[in-house]
Amino acid sequence: MRSKLLDESHGRRTFALVFDTGDEAMAGLSQFAREQGLSAAQFTAIGAFSRATIAYFDWDTKQYQRIPVDDQVEVLALTGDVSEEADGTPKVHAHVVLGRRDGTTRGGHLMEGQVRPTLEVVLTESPAHLRRRHDPATGLSLIRLA
Length: 146
Fold this sequence. Notes:
Layout: E1 2-9, E2 12-20, H1 25-36, E3 40-58, E4 63-69, E5 73-84, E6 90-99, E7 105-125, E8 131-135, E9 140-144
Antiparallel strand pairs: 1-2, 2-7, 3-4, 3-5, 3-7, 5-6, 6-7, 8-9
């Protein structure tokens, strides 16, 4: 993955990230967030994956059901945020819509995506921190605004 700082002003930074064939999207986003010390950011992306794993949160079991997508797919929309976990580490949370060869789509929480041929991400850091805390009712780590 390659990155470039596009703008920096008023406590905000905007980056372009370009992933290449073979890069894993979620691992690369997480590594970038750690290297840049991100605690609040949002991003969007388009591109393609050779395969991916998405997930659906099952409310009854409070677990993510993993859904493998073992096809070449277009990343029609990838959106997400970076926030800070209770221990101070950055947490990347992303949802994706994947377009299949026949025009149908699959979508959900992005667990992993193997890039082929590219993934183009625009990420904007916020000057304020977003912190996540464990929510016992859902079992999820949710953003706390207070």
